[in-house]
């Protein structure tokens, strides 16, 4: 039976509908051209294709190339076969999750700065550990982070790179290689080094693009949906932002920037006042994406929506760092397309899209005191097809539709005994967890089965990361021993702690505590 998911009348769909099985399967011509790779039968299918429907019993066929050849309700036709056939009776199939904003290299550094907001956390992490790891460390940290995402059902990742100043092209490429070697689908965001001139950055970006083209890890690679840039945006003021935007336009690359994350009033006032710089740079539109985007004004939202600029919501990280709650229902009223991301494992701590959806859903309902203001189908879309849209890759991934990559997850609600299933969409969002995640597929290939990686040696990655983090920690401990005990804190010892504690508020006369004083305040 084909069922339509019901949500509030004020939202996207009306009452539950039942359509006849004659609705039929959607099938591509390629299904008959070569033996298919994978056939999943007898599953409850949640395609997240914009229709609101789910198939109570259905099937998905992945062709030899790894793309969806057919998806439909009922039993698979007798003529349909594949190299691997899975009877998924009692299980749920849906698209793999996407994370639209991530910092994969942070994976080994969880639980840091738990008593700090964003700026203090940055001192705890970046100023403590950042000086002590190198390009080869970054390869393994990034690989570890991407595997962690895969193990949680996230098949496509936008990785906002490390941008701490003094980075080299080799470091960027090693970060990228590590994430791609995980087996996930990766969009790597190349970050401009704001300590360098426009000419130096131009040369570095040009060389980076040459290297990934030479290595075949540009958009010609089947697991690279697009090539992006990552920017610090207005965190460094007008001139640095214009440099980032100019490079993005010259090389025709979309760019994602952190914007309006920290709630500190003076910082927020400065950042809001600089918003017109994005228009000055000519970047407002589909090639610009704001990560976090919490402490906004209605004029900023209005301009963002009318321009087609998008945003990525990171509820777990925003809650952990006390950054605030993005008012997503209001953003949508303003016409802003919304995706979801995990952010970094050092700030979200877990790479769990189930928890990320619930965190955002529950917090929004608490804010409005209205259970209809955001529905399970809404957050499920944000973390799948919505993120694909904000990244401009909705023709490749994000839903179970013919012609898209066969990136999907198989959920067993009987694991940890969360069955029986009454409403599958609500069940996945409200009741399921990673404990219910049976298999993760990328291009029709099982990459994780019951928590075990099938194509990449996780033990090697884990052991290498453990070894390297121990070496980094030893260097941090040496720094610690050299410091005055009077600057001891509850968390890790970090340079600049006393300075940070003394700096209670950001003002135009203070240096920005992380990235430098804004160069112009409008």
UniProtKB/TrEMBL annotation:
InterPro entries, per database record: Amidohydro-rel (IPR006680), Metal-dep_hydrolase_composite (IPR011059), Metal_Hydrolase (IPR032466), MTA/SAH_deaminase (IPR050287)
Keyword Nucleotide-binding: no
Name the UniProt record assigns to this protein: Amidohydrolase family protein
Signal peptide: 1-31
Coiled coil: none
UniProt keyword terms in alphabetical order: Hydrolase, Signal
Residues covered by the Amidohydrolase-related domain: 92-447
Organism, as annotated: Coraliomargarita algicola
Source organism superkingdom: Bacteria
């Amino acid at each position: 039976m084909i069922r339509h998911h019901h949500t509030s009348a004020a939202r996207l769909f009306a009452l539950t509908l039942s359509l006849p099985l004659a609705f039929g399967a959607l099938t591509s011509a390629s299904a008959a051209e070569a033996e298919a790779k994978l056939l999943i039968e007898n599953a409850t299918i949640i395609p997240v294709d914009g229709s609101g429907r789910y198939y109570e019993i259905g099937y998905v066929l992945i062709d030899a190339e790894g793309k969806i050849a057919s998806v439909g309700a009922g039993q698979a036709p007798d003529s349909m076969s594949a190299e691997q056939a899975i009877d998924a009776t009692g299980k749920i199939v849906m698209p793999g999750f996407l994370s639209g904003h991530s910092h994969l290299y942070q994976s080994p550094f969880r639980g840091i700065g738990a008593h700090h907001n964003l700026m203090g956390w940055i001192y705890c992490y970046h100023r403590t550990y950042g000086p002590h790891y190198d390009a080869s460390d970054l390869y393994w940290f990034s690989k570890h982070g991407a595997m962690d995402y895969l193990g949680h059902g996230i098949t496509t990742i936008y990785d906002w790179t490390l941008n701490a100043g003094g980075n080299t092209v080799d470091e960027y490429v090693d970060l990228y290689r590590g994430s791609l070697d995980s087996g996930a689908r990766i969009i790597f965001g190349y970050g401009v080094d704001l300590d360098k001139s426009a000419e130096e950055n131009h040369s570095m970006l040009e060389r980076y693009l040459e290297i990934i083209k030479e290595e075949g890890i540009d958009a010609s690679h089947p697991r690279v949906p697009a090539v992006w840039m990552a920017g610090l945006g207005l965190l460094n003021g007008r001139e640095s932002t214009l440099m980032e935007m100019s490079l993005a336009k010259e090389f025709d690359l979309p760019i994602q920037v952190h914007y309006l994350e920290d709630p500190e009033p003076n910082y927020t006032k400065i950042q809001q006042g600089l918003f017109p710089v994005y228009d000055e740079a000519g970047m407002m539109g589909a090639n610009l994406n704001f990560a976090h985007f919490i402490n906004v004004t209605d004029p900023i939202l209005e301009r963002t929506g009318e321009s087609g600029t998008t945003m990525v919501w990171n509820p777990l990280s925003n809650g952990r760092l006390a950054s605030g709650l993005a008012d997503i229902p209001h953003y949508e009223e303003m016409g802003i397309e919304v995706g979801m991301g995990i952010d970094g494992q050092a700030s979200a701590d877990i790479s769990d899209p189930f928890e990320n959806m619930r965190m955002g859903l529950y917090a929004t309902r608490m804010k409005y005191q209205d259970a209809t203001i955001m529905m399970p189908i809404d957050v499920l879309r944000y973390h799948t097809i919505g993120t694909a849209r904000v990244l401009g890759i909705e023709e490749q991934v994000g839903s179970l539709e013919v012609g898209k990559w066969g990136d999907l997850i198989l959920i067993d609600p009987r694991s940890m005994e969360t069955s029986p299933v009454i409403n599958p969409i609500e069940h996945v969002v409200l009741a399921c967890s990673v404990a219910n995640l049976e298999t993760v597929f990328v291009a029709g290939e099982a990459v994780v089965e019951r928590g075990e990686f099938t194509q990449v040696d996780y033990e090697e990655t884990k052991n290498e990361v453990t070894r390297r983090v121990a070496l980094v920690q030893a260097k941090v401990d040496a720094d610690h021993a050299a410091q005055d005990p009077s600057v001891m804190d509850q968390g890790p010892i970090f340079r600049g702690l006393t300075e940070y504690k003394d700096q209670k508020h950001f003002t135009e006369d203070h240096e920005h505590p992380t990235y430098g004083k804004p160069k112009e305040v409008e």
